[in-house]
Design a protein that fits this description.
GO terms for molecular function: RNA polymerase II complex binding. With 1025 residues, this protein is mainly alpha-helical. A two-stranded antiparallel ribbon has the order 1-2.
Length: 1025
């Protein structure tokens, strides 16, 4: 029968029983020969339909359409209609022709109008079929395929369901419905339909392909791989489109696998797909070329990947899906990115992003977002930070394990907060971004590839330069190692930053080596002679090297380098400023002033500010205070920098104590307005904030001042000085609480003073200047004195007196400490004569010191004590100590008398105790003697009784022997008597021991034994009688 073989069609010959066989492998080249045979033999519509399908399976779609269209010509219509009754064969022919129109529009159209024309022809043919038989399931399946290819998936699903409700669904209908459900993410139902088709039609290749896609969508990669391999096995002997699709998907699976050979295997599969595609006489598929380009790109063959991507872009027609077009643009963008064409790559990435949004799918989302983010970060031209951040966050949202995106996000966030002059973000937003960037970079650097990401390492170091320089140093070193691994020299800027950080951490040896390495690289790149100048571009390296020499103590070499820099580069005023400071330290005020005057006219605002500060210091050394005030006021008016006004406020603050109260209050308000202005313009100015804290402390607002100083005490450079101010405020808070109530707030006062003492001690360890030790030590002694530890305060004050014995205010403080120590000992509830003597001695010494301080002229030089004692206070302390000293002497005499009386009473009690102990000892010895005598008497009596008993027993035994007629000379009776006597002695000795124990316990001794002896004597007397 015709049509049983899928690869052959049997045409029955009219007026004969024979048939003509057409094979798909041996079709005539001219389709009109076949059409003439069908006409002449009046073949039925079923044969016409099968012949058309045979040509379609041989990839001759146009010939298929000619055959089916010829069967619908009017002259053939009349003949064929007479051969069937219900018209069902015509419906099948019309459905096949509509499907051929749709496929031709999809594969061969170049314009949108051509495709729409083919769809209109398909719709017309389907309308004719619907007019013939509306209940034919093939009709609804064809309409469903038409909507499916037109991306109307909901209508396509409705038509497939209508076809299924009418009757048995064909294999094409089941495969279409399964593919449609796969697009709707209903993978389980889709797999069931694919398997049902495989069972019904003996596993067609399309069913295997659909099942593989279902497994792939469900994440079952192993099952999908086996299904794709089954497709390849069934299409091994001939070209089939399913084979190419299976190869492409297998290559994708291999490329995404974790095996090292995955990319190599994917390349082999793609090459096989390309050979099949080029070997067939069909048009190339842009999807295949795009996938091949991606795999060749990951395989390292960038040139071939670029050729394939360009070919895919060239052959992509109007009907190519937006998803495929976006994939092509992505491959081209990657290749342009790798070539360094950042602008073209960014443009292509944006096109891919737009096509992805048009398709409504997110298959390429992570790759497109990552490319846009990395390129935006590389270009930084016309791109907003938020744009880059949004793309990179989208990558992490889709794949939170993408370390490259995490590092890039950390870099862009860090750049947005490190960029100078950026006012787009608030302070809170900047801090939030800073912390987020630290987290992102820290996590990204620890993951794969982090040690080789140089921009991430450098940015991470920049984030920690101020807060944690040790972390920044480690990150910079990792970046240098990364440069060495790729065979490149590190930039001199990186080494310069690293050297500055090492110097700030007092790692001067390493800082010097790093900076010398930087200078060496500059000489190498610019072919400069050894020892010669570096040139204007690298003058900063020379200046930093001089600063480093200055820090390590080689001031002479640093001074020579500063002079060389100022001679070669007169406009580089920073060197003039540092040279001026060196001359100032050496006492050359004239030379220092010349350097400051030279730098104050610099074009650099910062240099002018430093020069003005130097000039102000020189004026202060010269005691030219009016000129100093003019310099500071001029700097404030010219707004050299934010610290010029702070310096003026500081100068006014230092002179407040010499002003009248009314003028002092006006000056305080002026200082407050000036500092508030600085804070408004620059909220991060810690020095100005500390000035506000000083203003609050002067107005006795100590709690607010404490909050201000606590907020700036962590400042890297000025934090130690702020700690001293915070300690001052803590002392004043403790003193205020102590004045309000001494008992209830004892704990609180102690806590405030303890915190202040810790801050002073920390400042003493970290601040090293000419007068800092004495001044801070005095502050610490005052704090401990206010806390009530007068002995420790006295020790510290005595140490200060040894450091500056010529400064009389220290002797005054020492005398006050002696006075308070004495009073503490004298007024103690529990005190000894030793304490009273020590207190009296301290009070006497304080009295003598105050007496001498009355007659001496106070020392007017500079010292650690700002508030000098007045003659009135000294006189008051002298009289007080004199009065208390007289009382102390009386108290001492009374205490000594009381102590002598107590000592005598103690000695008397001691003698009485000794006498009583001696009497008790004599009584014990007499009792022991009597006990021994009694014991010896008892032992003597016992021995006499034993001897008497022994004699009686021997006599008794002899008498018995004589009466029995025995020989008195026989030894036996005697031996028996002796044995019995020994036995009795043993019993008696045991009884003696028991009696002794009983006597020790308080009972009479030998009672039981005496009873035994008396009984034995009575028995003996009875026997004799």
């Amino acid at each position: 029968m015709a049509g049983l073989d899928l690869d052959r069609v049997y045409i029955p010959l009219r007026e004969s029983d024979q048939t003509l066989v057409l094979s798909s492998s041996k079709l005539p080249s001219d389709v009109y020969d076949v059409i003439e045979i069908l006409r002449s033999e009046a073949a039925p519509r079923e044969v016409w339909t099968k012949v058309g399908r045979l040509f379609n399976s041989a990839s001759r779609l146009s010939d298929c359409i000619r055959i089916l269209e010829d069967a619908l010509r009017p002259e053939m219509e009349a003949l064929l209609s007479s051969m069937e009754s219900d018209g069902s064969r015509k419906v099948e022919l019309l459905v096949s022709l509509a499907g051929a129109y749709i496929i031709q529009g999809l594969e061969a159209s170049e314009k949108e109008t051509d495709y729409q024309h083919m769809l209109e022809q398909a719709a017309s043919v389907l309308n004719q079929a619907e007019a013939l038989n509306v209940n034919n399931p093939l009709l609804w399946e064809a309409k469903a395929w038409k909507e499916f290819y037109n991306n109307n998936l909901d209508r396509a699903r409705s038509f497939f369901e209508t076809a299924a409700s009418i009757g048995n669904t064909s294999a094409g209908g089941k495969l279409g419905m399964a593919a449609l459900l796969l697009n709707f993410k209903e993978t389980s139902t889709s797999k069931s339909l694919f398997r049902s088709t495989m069972r019904d039609l003996h596993c067609p290749i399309s069913a295997w392909l659909g099942l593989a896609h279902a497994f792939l969508a469900n994440g079952q990669l192993r099952n999908a791989e086996e299904a794709f391999e089954r497709v390849l096995h069934q299409s091994a002997e001939e070209y089939r489109p399913e084979a190419i699709e299976a190869l492409v998907n297998l290559a994708t699976i291999k490329m995404n696998s974790e095996h090292d050979s995955g990319v190599r295997e994917a390349l082999l599969l793609i090459k096989s797909a390309l050979r099949i595609q080029h070997g067939a006489e069909v048009n190339l598929d842009p999807r295949l070329l795009s996938h091949a380009s991606e795999i060749f790109y990951y395989g390292g063959e960038v040139q071939r990947a670029e050729s394939l991507a360009l070919s895919a872009a060239k052959i992509a027609g109007m009907r190519t899906s937006p998803e495929t077009l976006g994939d092509i643009r992505l491959q081209l963008a990657r290749i342009a990115h790798s070539h360094g064409s950042y602008v073209d790559a960014l443009r292509l990435y944006k096109q891919a992003e737009a096509l992805q949004e048009q398709s409504g799918k997110d298959r390429l989302g992570s790759q497109v977002h990552l490319g846009c983010g990395l390129l935006g970060l590389a270009l930084q031209e016309g791109e907003k930070d938020d744009y880059i951040v949004d793309h990179l966050q989208a990558v992490l949202k889709a794949n939170d394990k993408c370390s490259r995106a995490r590092r890039a996000l950390g870099v862009v966030l860090a750049k947005s907060v490190l960029r100078k002059g950026s006012l787009e973000l608030s302070v809170a937003a900047r801090e939030q971004r800073r912390e987020l960037s630290k987290t992102m970079l820290q996590q990204g650097i620890l993951e794969d590839g982090g040690d080789d990401d140089i921009p991430a390492l450098i940015t991470y170091a920049q984030l920690f330069e101020l807060s944690r320089p040790e972390v920044a140093i480690a990150s910079y070193k990792k970046a240098i190692e990364a440069y060495k691994r790729v065979g490149k020299d590190e930039p001199f800027e990186l080494l310069n930053n690293l050297s500055a950080l090492q110097a700030s951490m007092s790692q001067f040896g390493e800082a010097k080596d790093t900076l010398e390495r930087s200078i060496q690289l500059v000489r190498k790149r610019n072919r400069l002679t050894e020892g010669g100048p570096l040139g204007p571009r690298y003058v900063t390296l020379s200046y930093n090297y001089a600063r480093l020499l200055e820090k390590v103590g080689d001031v002479n070499a640093a001074q020579e380098m500063y002079r060389e820099i100022t001679n070669l580069h007169p406009s580089y005023s920073d060197a003039s400023v540092r040279l001026g400071y060196i001359l100032l330290e050496r006492g050359d005020l004239v030379g220092s002033e010349e350097c400051a005057q030279k730098a104050v006219t610099s074009s650099s605002k910062n240099s002018r500010s430093f020069a003005a500060s130097l000039l102000a210091t020189v004026r202060a050394k010269q005691r030219a205070y009016p000129s100093l005030q003019k310099v500071l006021e001029k700097g404030s008016e010219n707004k050299l920098d934010m610290y010029a006004e702070v310096a003026l406020a500081s100068f006014w603050t230092e002179n407040l104590y010499s002003m009248e109260p009314e003028r002092r209050n006006r000056m305080l308000e002026r200082i407050h307005r000036l500092l508030a202005k600085v804070i408004r313009e620059n909220p991060s100015n810690a020095v100005a904030a500390a000035g506000i804290g000083c203003f609050l402390a002067m107005n006795h607002q100590y709690s607010d001042a404490r909050d201000v100083f606590s907020s700036v005490v962590a400042h890297r450079y000025c934090g130690n000085n702020f700690k001293v101010n915070l300690a001052h405020v803590q002392v004043e808070i403790g003193k205020g609480s102590k004045r309000r109530t001494r008992d209830a707030s004892k704990t609180a006062d102690s806590s405030s003073f303890q915190q202040a003492a810790k801050l002073y001690i920390d400042a003493i360890d970290k601040i090293r200047t000419a007068n800092s030790d004495s001044e801070l030590l005095l502050y610490l002694a005052r704090t401990i004195f206010e806390a009530g530890d007068y002995d420790e305060a006295l020790r510290l004050t005595q140490k200060l007196v040894h450091l500056s014995p010529q400064y009389l205010p220290l002797w005054y403080n020492f005398a006050v400490a002696l006075q308070e120590c004495s009073l503490a000992k004298m007024e103690s509830n529990v005190k000894s004569v030793k304490q009273i003597k020590q207190g009296a001695a301290e009070l006497d010494r304080a009295h003598r010191l105050f007496g001498r301080l009355r007659s001496y002229v106070p020392y007017e030089g500079s010292g650690p004590v700002h508030a000098k004692p007045t003659p009135q206070s000294t006189e008051a302390h002298y009289r007080f100590c004199k009065e208390r000293l007289n009382k102390a002497r009386v108290v001492l005499v009374n205490a000594e008398q009381t102590e002598r009386t107590a000592q005598e009473r103690l000695e008397q009690q001691k003698r009485e105790v000794e006498h009583r102990l001696a009497a008790e000892k004599a009584e014990r010895e007499e009792a022991e003697r009597k006990h021994l005598e009694e014991k010896e008497a008892l032992e003597q009596r016992q021995r006499l009784l034993d001897e008497k008993l022994q004699q009686e027993l021997v006599q008794k035994d002899q008498n018995e022997a004589v009466s029995d007629g025995g020989d008195p000379d026989m030894p036996y009776p005697q031996e028996e008597a002796v044995l019995q006597s020994k036995k009795r002695k043993t019993v008696e000795s045991d009884e003696d021991e028991e009696g002794a124990e009983h006597e020790e316990n308080g009972g009479p001794r030998n009672t039981k034994r005496n009873k035994v002896i008396s009984e034995s004597e009575s028995a003996e007397s009875d026997r004799v009688g």
